[in-house]
């Protein structure tokens, strides 16, 4: 038996952003850049680890909106275009840096190599659908893929039981579509929990969820092992809560690894440094500058001005990632030894949940860190065992029963990020739609005709898209406020218009088709999920 | 946390829309399908609506909607003259204690209430007139505020039972230093044999301020401990005032007036050191500015979670002699203390 268990849990999620009405759209780049910097590198790392015999094991949520976007033919074709465009730019960059700025040549070569590898993976291995990659990694025993809310709806702020249940049931159905099995666990959107949610999870066959630290520490009764063991809700659903120490080691801008001077600087990007004429073929048709993901400088130091940053050296950064992984494991061993002694011999279980996009996007070397982490965990020591939360539940180790406490992982630990003076206006509209959809679903126990059936299903899609917690978050953060506001309002307006037409028995088929074409998430959806049980 | 890049279509408008060939109805550009922000959302929905939402342990949000003009209904029921005495009002009830408060209903049909942690509340919208019964129009569901500290209950089963002293260690290991301090005080109170009187906690308060703290019921003892923990972590007393129950808030306010310096964290830490041999230490990698941020993030005030770790907050460790037991080693940056005290 090891001294401790360690579960890395990654949460990969993006809001559903797909704009077929535009030939290119800046917010779609969120997906393309995440694919280039995060999802493809992580799949590459996990596959390589598995092939090498390092036997990595972790849990990962690939959220339903993300799965739907990754499997969408339009977005797939647009990503291919994006990738080709970026590769073409790296070819130019090798020439330019060789002639004009050799100090940046290693980085230029690195981008060309990694993007070429990404293209091989994208085109040749997975045929432009990397959901396949995640699915294969689950089947090989590397990933325990868990689900999330259907559109990342913030469950405690959803007004009706039916609408909360639908977020979970539709997610589970979508998971089965993409991964061919039942999910064992769920990443509650924003780790937002309030008592009662576990009932909906149990009804959907979900065995465990991920929560923030105080869900367990402030739970009732007091947790014997703190967050270093899961607990079970009174109905049997298990809860794994975040370990603060490992979170800080990766998240903190002060003591966290990503702030190392050798690592790549995020905010210095070729898209803002190079002459516009040079970049123009690689920009959107509007010709505006934007982040291109080619960054040539390192952090250098905490207080170093952007124009004084030094050239990025990929080899040095890679060595630092290895050192950080080694340090991380050393700290885990110390933590486990100390806790195990304190727990009378029971091995602690450390749950480390992170946004997947931290690894590769915000922290460029993150995938390399994960690579070294699992290699060293497997080959260099025996004290810590990497497992998934499901593995722990299968281990037979006794788990305390507890009622967890209301909580989220947002600022200040509760719901302020998603409910505040700037975004509270959203909830009356959302509630009205939630009540109205269930009333309509109850009134149409069976679809009256194919057109009304389509309209009812689209109604559910519009509500789901409006419920995405991303819009309230962006409004709170003050980033992309206008886009987030527009998205929420659009979905509510589309919902109201379609509902009115259903109630009046006069559906505009042409307009419905256009809306279906735009908001095409969850082809398998059945509006009857919203009926009162 | 969503994955948002600097810049968006707000700053960089996308190109003029061009219908895609695969669109089934590319010619249709109905306003409802477009991403327009011009048309307002409905002001009022059919049917009455009311909802009381929990934002945090200290705040609730209420919104409501009347399907019809409530004053028209009132005038019809009681006549113009009587109706003129009434105003639209909000009533908030603490479900367990029955304590209630009234507020004028703002025209915006929404309101933020300041409340207390670990309670259940219900809100009403109705008509209020002095010396007349409150006329209910809308009644919300019950909203619960989360607790901001550990549960008072321990598991009864031997396998999962944990003493207060041992739980303080668990909390500290989890990075919840402020809660660990509260739990240490609870353990000290228990060990004193006079748990119901909170002898140690009250003695600390007396040493700190030179005056007795008000008597509080058993279930409010944790609040007094949390107050001390908050002060120990350097939280300004002004920030603590609105979070306390009335008796403790009144007492703290009086202390602030009498001798503000007595409430300094360093003073309290000296007392904790001499009476309970407790040390508190910040990570040396933090500079003064950051250390201040750390103190501001004390659990008592803001609950638990960091801003998804984006802000430079790290909870300081406290070191207590009771943590000796069972520890094979302790982090090198923890300060050694010579004092000793009963261990769990």
Would you spell out the secondary-structure blueprint of this structure?
The complex is a heterodimer of chains A (533) and B (344).
Chain A: E1 4-12, H1 28-52, E2 58-62, H2 64-70, H3 73-100, H4 105-125, H5 131-139, E3 143-148, H6 161-179, E4 185-187, H7 197-203, E5 208-211, H8 213-217, E6 231-232, E7 238-241, H9 244-251, H10 270-273, H11 276-279, H12 314-342, E8 349-355, H13 366-379, E9 384-386, H14 389-394, E10 400-401, H15 426-443, H16 450-467, H17 469-477, H18 481-504, H19 509-518
Helix pairs in contact in A: 1-4, 1-13, 3-4, 12-13, 15-16, 15-18, 16-18, 16-19, 17-18
Chain B: E1 49-56, E2 59-65, H1 70-83, E3 87-94, E4 100-104, E5 110-114, E6 120-128, E7 135-139, E8 143-144, H2 164-173, H3 177-191, H4 199-209, H5 221-232, H6 237-240, H7 246-258, H8 265-276, E9 279-281, H9 288-296, H10 299-302, E10 317-319
Antiparallel strand pairs in B: 1-2, 2-5, 3-4, 3-6, 6-7, 6-8, 9-10
Give a quick precis of the structure.
Chain A has 533 residues and is α/β, with parallel strands linked by helices. Chain A has helices spanning 28-52, 64-70, 73-100, 105-125, 131-139, 161-179, 197-203, 213-217, 244-251, 270-273, 276-279, 314-342, 366-379, 389-394, 426-443, 450-467, 469-477, 481-504, 509-518; strands at 4-12, 58-62, 143-148, 185-187, 208-211, 231-232, 238-241, 349-355, 384-386, 400-401. In chain A, β3 (143-148), α6 (161-179) and β4 form a beta-alpha-beta unit.
């Amino acid at each position: 038996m090891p001294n401790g268990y360690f579960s890395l849990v990654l949460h990969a999620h993006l809001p559903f952003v797909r704009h077929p009405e535009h030939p290119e759209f800046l917010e779609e780049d969120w997906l393309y850049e995440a694919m280039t910097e995060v999802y493809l590198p992580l799949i590459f790392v996990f596959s390589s680890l598995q092939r090498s015999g390092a036997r990595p094991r972790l849990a990962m949520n690939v959220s339903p909106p993300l799965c739907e976007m990754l499997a969408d033919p339009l977005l797939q074709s647009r990503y291919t275009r994006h990738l080709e465009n970026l590769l073409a730019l790296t070819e130019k960059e090798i020439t330019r840096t060789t002639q004009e700025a050799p100090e940046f040549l290693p980085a230029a070569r690195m981008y060309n190599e990694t993007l070429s590898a990404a293209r091989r993976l994208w085109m040749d291995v997975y045929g432009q659908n990397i959901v396949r990659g995640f699915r294969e990694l689950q089947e090989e025993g590397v990933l325990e893929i868990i689900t999330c809310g259907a559109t990342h709806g913030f469950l405690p702020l959803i007004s009706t039981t039916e609408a909360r249940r639908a977020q979970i049931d539709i997610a589970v159905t979508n998971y089965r579509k993409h991964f061919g099995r039942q999910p064992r666990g769920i990443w509650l959107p924003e780790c937002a929990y309030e008592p009662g949610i576990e009932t909906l999870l149990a009804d959907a066959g979900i065995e465990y969820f991920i929560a923030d630290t105080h869900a367990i520490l402030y739970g009732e009764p007091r947790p014997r092992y703190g967050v270093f063991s899961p607990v079970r809700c009174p109905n049997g659903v298990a809860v794994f809560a975040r370990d603060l120490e490992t979170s800080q080691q990766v998240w903190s801008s002060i003591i966290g690894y990503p702030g190392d001077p050798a690592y790549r600087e995020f905010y210095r990007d070729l898209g803002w440094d190079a002459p516009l004429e040079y970049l123009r073929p690689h920009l959107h048709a509007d010709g505006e500058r934007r982040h291109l993901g080619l960054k040539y400088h390192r952090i250098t130091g905490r207080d170093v001005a952007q124009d004084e940053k030094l050239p990025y050296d990929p080899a040095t950064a890679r060595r630092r990632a290895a050192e950080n992984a080694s340090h991380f494991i050393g700290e885990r061993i110390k933590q486990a030894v100390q806790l195990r002694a304190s727990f009378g011999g029971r091995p602690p279980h450390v749950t480390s949940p992170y946004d997947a996009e931290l690894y590769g996007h915000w922290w460029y070397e993150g995938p390399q860190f994960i690579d070294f982490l699992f290699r060293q965990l497997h080959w260099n020591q025996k004290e810590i065992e990497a497992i998934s939360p499901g593995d722990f539940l299968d281990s037979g180790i006794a788990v305390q029963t507890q009622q967890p406490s209301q909580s989220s992982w947002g600022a200040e630990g509760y719901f302020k990020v998603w409910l505040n003076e700037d975004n509270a206006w959203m909830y009356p509209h959302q509630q009205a739609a939630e009540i109205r959809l269930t009333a309509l679903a109850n009134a149409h126990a069976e679809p009256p005709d194919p057109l009304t059936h389509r309209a009812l299903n689209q109604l559910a899609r519009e509500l789901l898209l409006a419920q995405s917690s991303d819009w309230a978050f962006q409004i709170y953060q003050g980033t992309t406020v206008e886009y987030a506001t527009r998205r929420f309002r659009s979905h509510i307006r589309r919902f109201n218009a379609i509902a009115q037409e259903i109630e009046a028995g006069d559906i505009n088929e042409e307009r419905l088709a256009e809306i279906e074409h735009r908001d095409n998430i969850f082809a398998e959806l059945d509006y009857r999920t919203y009926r009162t049980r | 946390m969503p994955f948002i890049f600097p810049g968006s279509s707000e700053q960089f408008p996308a190109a003029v829309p061009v219908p895609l060939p695969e669109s089934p109805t590319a010619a249709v550009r109905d306003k409802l399908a477009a991403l327009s922000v011009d048309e307002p959302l409905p002001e009022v929905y059919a049917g009455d609506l009311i909802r009381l939402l929990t934002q945090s342990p200290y705040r609730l949000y209420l919104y409501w909607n009347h399907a019809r003009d409530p004053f028209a209904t009132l005038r019809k029921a009681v006549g113009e003259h009587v109706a003129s005495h009434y105003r639209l009002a909000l009533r908030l009830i603490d479900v367990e204690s029955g304590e209630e408060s009234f507020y004028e209903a703002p025209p915006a049909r929404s309101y933020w209430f300041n409340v207390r942690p670990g309670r259940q509340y219900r809100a009403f919208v109705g008509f209020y007139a002095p010396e007349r019964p409150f006329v209910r129009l809308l009644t919300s569901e019950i909203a619960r505020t989360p607790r901001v500290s550990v549960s008072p209950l321990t598991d009864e089963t031997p396998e999962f039972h944990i003493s207060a002293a041992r739980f303080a260690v668990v909390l500290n290991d989890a990075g919840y230093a402020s809660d660990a301090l509260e739990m240490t005080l609870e353990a000290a109170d228990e060990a004193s044999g006079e748990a119901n009187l909170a002898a140690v906690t009250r003695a600390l308060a007396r040493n700190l301020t030179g005056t007795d703290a008000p008597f509080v019921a058993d279930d409010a003892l944790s609040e007094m401990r949390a107050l001390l923990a908050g002060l120990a972590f350097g939280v300004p007393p002004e920030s603590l005032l609105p979070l306390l129950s009335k008796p403790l808030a009144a007492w703290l306010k009086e202390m602030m007036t009498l001798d503000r310096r007595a409430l300094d964290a360093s003073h309290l830490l000296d007392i904790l050191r001499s009476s309970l041999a407790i040390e508190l230490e910040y990570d040396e990698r933090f500079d003064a500015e950051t250390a201040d941020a750390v103190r501001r993030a004390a659990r008592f005030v803001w609950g638990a979670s960091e801003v998804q770790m984006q802000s430079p907050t790290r909870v300081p460790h406290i070191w207590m002699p009771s943590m000796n037991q069972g520890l094979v080693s302790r982090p090198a940056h923890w300060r050694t203390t010579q004092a000793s005290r009963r261990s769990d």
